[in-house]
Structure formats: structure tokens, C-alpha cells
Design goal:
The complex is a heterodimer of chains A (224) and B (283). Chain A is an all-alpha fold and 224 residues long. In chain A, 87% of the residues lie in helices and 0% in strands. Chain A has one domain. Chain A is globular, with a radius of gyration of 19 Å. Chain B is of the alpha/beta class. Chain B folds into two domains: 208 residues, Rossmann fold, CATH 3.40.50; 65 residues, no CATH class. Chain B is built from eleven helices and 15 strands. A six-stranded mixed sheet of chain B has the order 6-7-8-3-9-10, with helices on both faces. In chain B, helix 5 runs parallel beside helix 6. The longest helix of chain B has 14 residues. Chain B is elongated and about 70 Å long. Classes of the chains: A mainly alpha (224), B alpha/beta (283). Chains A and B meet through helix 1 and helix 4 of A and helix 2, strand 6 and helix 3 of B.
Chain lengths: 224, 283
Amino acid sequence: MKGMLIKDFQLIFSNKRYFLILLLIMVFISFAGNGENYGFLVTFCGVCFGVMALNTISFDEQDGGLPYIMTLPVTRNMYVAGKYIFAVVMVAIGIILSGVLVMLGRLTTGSGPALRELLIIGAVSFVLFVSFVFILMPIQFRFGSDNGRLMIIIFVATVYAAAFIMDKISESRGLDLETVIEGAISTLSAQPPALIAAEAAAVLLAVTSVSMAFSCAVMRRKQM
Amino acid sequence: MILEVDNIRKEYGNFCLACSFSVEENRITGLIGANGAGKSTLFKAILDLISIDEGYIRIFGKEHNRLTAADKEKIGVVMGKSSPFGMLTVKKILPVLNSMYHDFDREEFTGKCREYNLPFNVKIKDFSTGEMAKLNILIATCHNADLLLLDEPTAGLDVLAREQIMDMLRRYMETEGRSIIISSHISGDLENFCDDVYMINKGRLVFHEDMDVLLDEYGVLKIDERAYGDVDKSHIVYACKSDYGYICLTDARQFYLENYKDIVVEKNGIDEFMKIAGKGIKL
């Protein structure tokens, strides 16, 4: 599995031009908002790095690469586990990088979130984006590079559509969905930090277990 | 027995792969057949890349779909020109291979890359067909594998590059206890290389023989229609009708040379044998 992780890192970081552009955009976002853009920056980094991890599955499938990989000392389950570990590391890199940029921005501009606030946002974002990537992972394994992308778009569009419909329904019943969500968040935030961390870990564990079970099942059945 | 394929069956629409065969230690086994005969499907079945409907495949005595990563370290594979390392360079795949294989010989690998003039800093996807083929063979042979599964390793190569590949494989076989199964539709590659050869046609193994026997004792008979009825057919393996009469594959060329002065007896290569076995009727 270590070899596969090295391969994926080599693959991702071999495109230096892409990373330079990405870094420039991140620096721009960080400094443009006078330290107020952290929410957007962390989302941008989390999604970018998470999607990059997903893309390695597509890269593997190019030019008959996946059957070749399966002939290397890698079992199907090891391959799946490797992709999950890689995704966790990539999302972590994205969030840490965004945090570092915000801190640099704060040092330069003098405004921005406090370190404690930054750590909390970072930790919550990490759980959210890792869960996001893990939900998409089985889709990518099942539908491959081209159809996978289409299915991910359909999935995200469905989530948006569901949220929109829920908003409309609650509106028609005199409920403000935003207020409900804010209420839920403040209830959650009022809990002791250890409990929040435990709940986040439980959610992440549940998402990981279900997602990995699906991905392993897909890979076991895959005909190459 | 290093590899055992026991009554496997795999159906794909109209195509059906159904065969049994084995590869012994210290042997080079060739698999010949026309395009679409089922060679690659058989390799994929052995490597558990596709499931089989019936039968068993055992590698090193273990069921092929229960091999661990450690078992797989003992197998080297070449599957045509495919590679998951296209976006990387030789320099960048070194740590990857080093981490994957406990017995990876980094010095030998880099030395051979230099010997075969493989560029270290060019993306593998930009390699020529010959460079790609050599790299794939080096990857398959650089980690002390006991079994090589080579599906068309010389496809698309010129004579010189093909000879280099065969030399690399000969060197690999110098170590005791190793085996190779190699497929090719270029029979010339296999004639002076394999210990035995299987022929596959429409998903079925139609022929198996030791290469020495095949080249020394087999031959092609060209018999006119009138004489065909009187010929002793006990040494005719396959026969097929032609404009002239019958073209037959015999496993006793000398017998017909000595006893039938009026029929044409030729010592052909395995290309010709393959044609007759592919088109003809087994007697």
C-alpha cells in the first residue's frame, strides 16, 4: 500500500504548473479578503485537494492502468484502503495549507480569525470534506472516470435539489430552514468540545465504514 | 506445479473460454493463437482480473483469487503496452517499486535501464513502443519473481527490439526455479525460446506439445484427394481440405517421408502448424 500512496503523491505533485496556479489562487483569496475569506478558502482547498484524490482513481483507469495495478502486490481491498488514506491525507494537506495562508494573511494584514477559531473551523471542515469525498468515492469506483464524473454531478445536483425542495416546503409551512439549521448548530456548539469531537469522530467512522464497504464490494466485482 | 488451470470456463456473449493447462517449474510455456483466440482472456482469468464461471486456477498451489500481496510479489506481469505509471518518469517510479517489492533490486534495475538506454527523466507515456516494452519487462523481472506472465510482450516491436526482449527473458531464466508463460502471435519469438507450447483457438486449447518435438518431428503433408484415402492417418493430428486436396499436420514427419514417396512432406514452422490446427479437423 505504501508503494501505491507514493505513486499517487508522485502523480498528483508531478503537475507543478497546476499546483503553482492553485497556490496563486489560494494566496489571492487569503489576502484579498483581509482575513475574512477563511471560510471560502478552506472550502476551496478542501474541495480541490479532495477532488484531486478522487481523480487518482480516474488516472489509474487510463490506458489500461487499473488491471496492471491489480497485477502488482496490491489486493483489491488494499487498493481501496489506499485511496481512502490518500484522500484523508490530501484533505488534511488542503486544510492545513489554507490555515497557514490565513495565518500569514493575518500577520500581514493584521486581521483574521484567532488561532482557536481557526483550529475549530479547520477540524469541522476536515470532517465535512473527508465525509464528502468518502460519499463520492464508491461512485467513482463504480462508474469509472467518465461516467463517475457525470454521476458525481448528478449526485451533487440531487443534494442541491433536495435542499431547495426542503427549503420551499418549510417556507410553505411557515418555517425558516436557515433558522432551524442555525439553531441546530448552536445547540451542537453549546456541547462540551470533547463531546463534539466524539460526535464528529462517530459520524466520520460511520461514513467511512459504509463508504468503504460499498467501495470494496464494487472493486471485488469489478471485471477488468 | 507453479500454475494450474483446471477446467475453467468463462462465457462472454458468443465467446466461451474453456480450458485446462499447467506450467511447471523451470519451464517456459508458450501460448499461441490468432487475435481474438482468447489468449488475453486466459491471462486475465489467471490474474483474477475477470471472474471465472467454473473451474479452478492455482498459482503456487493457492487459489488465484486468494493470493496475498506477498504472493503477488513472486509474480511478474506484462500486459501489452498498458502502464499505470504513464505520467511518471523512471526516476519517480523507483521509490514506488522499492516500496512495493521487498526484493526489488534497485541497483540492477537502474543499471539495466542504463544498459537499454531508457531515459530517466522523460514521462513514461512519451516512451517509444520499444522503450515501453523494455521497461515493462524490467519491472516484471527486477524483484526476483518466480513466475512471469507475459501477454504479447513483443507486440508492435521491430526485430532488434524483439531480440533484446527475448535476451532479457533468457537472462531471467538463468536463475533456477523460475517459470514463464508467454503469449504471442509472432511464432518466431517462441520457436527458439519455449520448452512447450499450447495453441488456443476460439477459447479452447487445441494443441499442446514440447517445442523440441514440434520442431523435430512435426510436419505438414500435402496430399491429393485420391491419395488421401489410402494414407495411414494414425500420425495425422489435424487435416483440412484445400483446393489441392488435403493439408495435414503430422506428428511423425519422418514416417511419411520414408513410406509415402508421392506426397509432399514439409518441415514448416509453427505458423503453418497453427493455421492447420486452427482451420482443420482433429483426427
